[in-house]
Amino acid sequence: MFDFFKKKKEIKTTDYIFRSEEAKYQKLVANILAQKKVLLLYYFEDTKQQLIHTLQANNIAFSEMESTTTAVYLLQAATLLNKINISDYHLIFAEHHPSFQTENNIKQHLVETLLQNEVIFYTSLEDVLLQKFGAERIIAILDKMGFKEDEIIEHKMISDSIVNVQQKIDKQLQYASDTRMRKDWFEINKINLN
After folding, report:
1. pLDDT in tens, 46-78
2. What is the pTM of this model?
3. Measured between alpha carbons, how far is 133 from 186 in angstroms, rounded to an integer?
């Protein structure tokens, strides 16, 4: 009766952060190979092209249409909002969307409609979004700590920073324009976080 008092369910979000895009894609391939069925999600066309290149270079069969014969299903993240069942798949996002609202709508659909408990995001410190909140400072700290190129950085502080920068971006958005290329998104939407 009083559903509006209920707290919204939240999906557990894990961020795997890597120093470079190369290390990110190497670990992404390793994770894909360790799973039976993977739903590999992206937001932007340039990320999709990089994923296709990476999968082909590693001889990993994939499909852009749901298939019972292919273990990897490549899908634009927004199309999840039209899905009613993905229970057989291990979900991996190859990037974050710059807008918190855009990404949160998808995560809410995942947890409330598609009954998913957890998602994993693969991101690198070379990503435009992370560059916007000072990835160079994190790289300097990692260098001092002796982090290797292929080590995973997984820390709530970085995950929280990603959400904070996404929310700051949303405050600047009047009418969000989607773009095919990730690098163009900030310019077209006139986002300045400096």
Report:
1. 999 999 999 999 999 999 987 667 889 999 999
2. 0.88
3. 13
pLDDT tier for residue 7 given thresholds of 50, 70 and 90: low
Separation CA 31–CA 169 (nearest Å): 30
Separation CA 103–CA 61 (nearest Å): 27
- 79 contact partners, CB below 8 Å, separation of at least 6: none
Burial of 162 (0-12, 13-18, 19+ CB in 10 A): buried
**Cross-strand pairs, 121:** 15, 93
Choices 3.40.50.300, 3.30.565.10, 3.30.70.330, 2.40.37.10: CATH for 10-188: 3.40.50.300
pLDDT band at 4 (very low <50, low <70, confident <90, very high): low
